[in-house]
Protein backbone atom coordinates (compact mmCIF):
# COMPACT_ATOMS: atom_id res chain seq x y z
CA UNK A 1 0.00 0.00 0.00
CA UNK A 2 1.36 3.42 -0.91
CA UNK A 3 1.47 5.98 1.88
CA UNK A 4 -0.93 8.92 1.74
CA UNK A 5 0.25 11.76 -0.49
CA UNK A 6 1.81 14.85 1.06
CA UNK A 7 -0.14 17.89 -0.14
CA UNK A 8 0.99 21.44 0.52
CA UNK A 9 -2.00 23.78 0.78
CA UNK A 10 -1.04 27.46 0.55
CA UNK A 11 -2.29 30.88 -0.47
CA UNK A 12 0.43 33.19 -1.75
CA UNK A 13 0.52 36.58 -3.40
CA UNK A 14 2.09 36.83 -6.87
CA UNK A 15 5.32 37.96 -5.18
CA UNK A 16 5.30 34.90 -2.88
CA UNK A 17 4.13 36.61 0.32
CA UNK A 18 2.06 34.34 2.56
CA UNK A 19 2.01 36.32 5.79
CA UNK A 20 2.57 39.58 7.60
CA UNK A 21 2.93 40.04 11.36
CA UNK A 22 1.72 36.49 12.08
CA UNK A 23 -1.43 36.75 9.99
CA UNK A 24 -2.61 36.55 6.39
CA UNK A 25 -2.48 39.97 4.69
CA UNK A 26 -5.83 39.59 2.90
CA UNK A 27 -9.46 38.67 3.41
CA UNK A 28 -10.54 35.87 1.09
CA UNK A 29 -13.72 33.98 2.05
CA UNK A 30 -13.63 32.31 -1.39
CA UNK A 31 -10.20 30.84 -0.60
CA UNK A 32 -11.23 29.83 2.93
CA UNK A 33 -14.05 27.73 1.43
CA UNK A 34 -11.55 26.20 -1.03
CA UNK A 35 -9.10 25.49 1.83
CA UNK A 36 -11.84 23.78 3.83
CA UNK A 37 -12.83 21.62 0.85
CA UNK A 38 -9.19 20.54 0.34
CA UNK A 39 -8.46 19.76 3.99
CA UNK A 40 -11.72 18.59 5.62
CA UNK A 41 -11.45 15.00 6.84
CA UNK A 42 -7.68 14.92 6.26
CA UNK A 43 -4.89 15.34 8.82
CA UNK A 44 -3.34 18.84 8.79
CA UNK A 45 0.26 19.50 9.82
CA UNK A 46 1.38 22.99 10.79
CA UNK A 47 4.07 24.84 12.68
CA UNK A 48 3.50 26.39 16.09
CA UNK A 49 3.20 29.95 14.76
CA UNK A 50 0.51 28.88 12.28
CA UNK A 51 -1.32 27.07 15.08
CA UNK A 52 -1.18 30.19 17.24
CA UNK A 53 -2.37 32.44 14.40
CA UNK A 54 -5.40 30.16 13.83
CA UNK A 55 -6.04 30.12 17.57
CA UNK A 56 -7.97 26.85 17.74
CA UNK A 57 -8.05 23.36 16.23
CA UNK A 58 -9.48 23.21 12.72
CA UNK A 59 -12.69 21.17 13.09
CA UNK A 60 -13.22 17.94 11.17
CA UNK A 61 -9.51 17.25 10.73
CA UNK A 62 -6.81 15.78 12.97
CA UNK A 63 -4.52 18.73 13.83
CA UNK A 64 -0.78 18.14 14.27
CA UNK A 65 1.45 20.96 15.50
CA UNK A 66 5.24 21.00 15.09
CA UNK A 67 7.36 22.60 17.79
CA UNK A 68 10.68 21.84 19.43
CA UNK A 69 9.21 23.03 22.76
CA UNK A 70 8.38 19.71 24.46
CA UNK A 71 6.27 21.55 27.04
CA UNK A 72 4.06 23.29 24.46
CA UNK A 73 0.41 22.33 24.80
CA UNK A 74 -1.76 22.56 21.69
CA UNK A 75 -5.20 21.80 23.10
CA UNK A 76 -7.21 19.83 20.56
CA UNK A 77 -4.09 18.92 18.56
CA UNK A 78 -1.17 16.54 18.75
CA UNK A 79 2.27 18.07 19.34
CA UNK A 80 5.28 16.62 17.50
CA UNK A 81 8.93 17.63 17.55
CA UNK A 82 9.71 17.67 13.81
CA UNK A 83 8.17 17.84 10.37
CA UNK A 84 9.22 14.24 9.73
CA UNK A 85 7.44 13.07 12.88
CA UNK A 86 4.40 15.16 11.92
CA UNK A 87 4.22 13.62 8.45
CA UNK A 88 4.56 10.09 9.87
CA UNK A 89 1.78 10.72 12.44
CA UNK A 90 -0.44 12.35 9.80
CA UNK A 91 0.05 9.47 7.37
CA UNK A 92 -0.84 6.96 10.10
CA UNK A 93 -3.96 8.97 10.93
CA UNK A 94 -4.87 9.26 7.21
CA UNK A 95 -4.59 5.50 6.79
CA UNK A 96 -6.84 5.02 9.82
CA UNK A 97 -9.38 7.44 8.33
CA UNK A 98 -9.13 5.86 4.87
CA UNK A 99 -8.03 9.08 3.15
CA UNK A 100 -5.32 9.43 0.50
CA UNK A 101 -3.82 12.79 1.50
CA UNK A 102 -2.29 14.66 4.39
CA UNK A 103 -2.10 18.45 4.23
CA UNK A 104 0.83 20.68 5.15
CA UNK A 105 -0.69 24.08 5.95
CA UNK A 106 2.22 26.30 7.01
CA UNK A 107 4.06 28.31 7.90
CA UNK A 108 7.03 29.50 5.91
CA UNK A 109 9.75 27.22 7.31
CA UNK A 110 7.45 24.17 7.30
CA UNK A 111 6.62 24.84 3.63
CA UNK A 112 10.31 25.24 2.72
CA UNK A 113 11.18 21.95 4.40
CA UNK A 114 8.18 20.09 2.91
CA UNK A 115 8.95 21.17 -0.67
CA UNK A 116 11.69 18.52 -0.91
CA UNK A 117 9.19 15.65 -0.59
CA UNK A 118 5.68 17.00 -1.24
CA UNK A 119 3.69 15.18 -3.92
CA UNK A 120 1.17 17.94 -4.68
CA UNK A 121 1.00 21.71 -4.15
CA UNK A 122 -2.49 23.19 -3.97
CA UNK A 123 -1.73 26.89 -4.35
CA UNK A 124 -4.14 29.78 -4.32
CA UNK A 125 -2.46 32.65 -6.13
CA UNK A 126 -3.64 35.98 -4.73
CA UNK A 127 -3.73 38.36 -7.68
CA UNK A 128 -1.65 41.12 -6.07
CA UNK A 129 1.87 41.94 -4.94
CA UNK A 130 1.59 42.33 -1.19
CA UNK A 131 4.04 43.46 1.48
CA UNK A 132 4.79 40.84 4.08
CA UNK A 133 7.44 39.14 6.18
CA UNK A 134 6.82 35.47 5.32
CA UNK A 135 7.15 34.05 1.81
CA UNK A 136 6.49 30.76 0.06
CA UNK A 137 9.50 29.28 -1.78
CA UNK A 138 9.51 29.47 -5.57
CA UNK A 139 8.11 26.35 -7.20
CA UNK A 140 10.80 24.59 -9.25
CA UNK A 141 9.17 23.84 -12.62
CA UNK A 142 11.75 21.09 -13.24
CA UNK A 143 10.35 19.24 -10.19
CA UNK A 144 6.65 20.22 -10.37
CA UNK A 145 4.27 20.69 -13.28
CA UNK A 146 1.10 22.77 -13.16
CA UNK A 147 -1.79 20.40 -13.91
CA UNK A 148 -4.78 22.60 -13.06
CA UNK A 149 -5.65 26.27 -12.98
CA UNK A 150 -8.99 28.05 -12.58
CA UNK A 151 -9.92 31.61 -11.67
CA UNK A 152 -13.15 31.47 -9.64
CA UNK A 153 -15.45 34.50 -9.59
CA UNK A 154 -14.29 37.05 -7.01
CA UNK A 155 -16.48 36.92 -3.93
CA UNK A 156 -18.13 40.17 -2.98
CA UNK A 157 -16.20 40.34 0.32
CA UNK A 158 -12.85 39.09 -1.08
CA UNK A 159 -10.07 41.67 -0.86
CA UNK A 160 -8.44 40.32 -4.07
CA UNK A 161 -9.10 38.02 -7.01
CA UNK A 162 -7.53 34.55 -6.81
CA UNK A 163 -6.47 31.70 -9.07
CA UNK A 164 -6.56 28.11 -7.79
CA UNK A 165 -3.65 26.04 -9.09
CA UNK A 166 -2.54 22.44 -8.63
CA UNK A 167 1.08 21.39 -9.10
CA UNK A 168 2.12 17.73 -9.25
CA UNK A 169 5.64 16.42 -8.66
CA UNK A 170 7.15 15.27 -11.96
CA UNK A 171 9.10 12.43 -10.32
CA UNK A 172 8.25 10.28 -7.35
CA UNK A 173 9.91 11.61 -4.19
CA UNK A 174 11.00 9.00 -1.66
CA UNK A 175 12.34 9.72 1.79
CA UNK A 176 14.56 7.25 3.53
CA UNK A 177 14.68 7.16 7.35
CA UNK A 178 17.83 9.28 7.24
CA UNK A 179 15.74 12.06 5.63
CA UNK A 180 17.72 12.00 2.39
CA UNK A 181 15.58 12.66 -0.67
CA UNK A 182 15.81 10.27 -3.56
CA UNK A 183 14.27 10.98 -6.96
CA UNK A 184 13.08 7.86 -8.78
Automatic annotation (TrEMBL):
CDD domains: DHFR
PROSITE patterns membership: DHFR_1 (PS00075), DHFR_2 (PS51330)
Oxidoreductase is among the record's keywords: yes
GO cellular component: cytosol
Pathway: Cofactor biosynthesis; tetrahydrofolate biosynthesis; 5,6,7,8-tetrahydrofolate from 7,8-dihydrofolate: step 1/1
DHFR domain mapped to chain residues: 5-169
Catalytic activity from the UniProt record: (6S)-5,6,7,8-tetrahydrofolate + NADP(+) = 7,8-dihydrofolate + NADPH + H(+)
Organism superkingdom: Bacteria
Pfam families: DHFR_1 (PF00186)
GO molecular function: dihydrofolate reductase activity; NADP+ binding
GO BP field: dihydrofolate metabolic process; folic acid metabolic process; one-carbon metabolic process; tetrahydrofolate biosynthetic process
EC number: 1.5.1.3
Keywords of the record: NADP, One-carbon metabolism, Oxidoreductase
PANTHER family in the record: DIHYDROFOLATE REDUCTASE (PTHR48069)
Role according to the record: Key enzyme in folate metabolism. Catalyzes an essential reaction for de novo glycine and purine synthesis, and for DNA precursor synthesis.
Family to which the UniProt record says this protein belongs: Belongs to the dihydrofolate reductase family.
Protein name: Dihydrofolate reductase
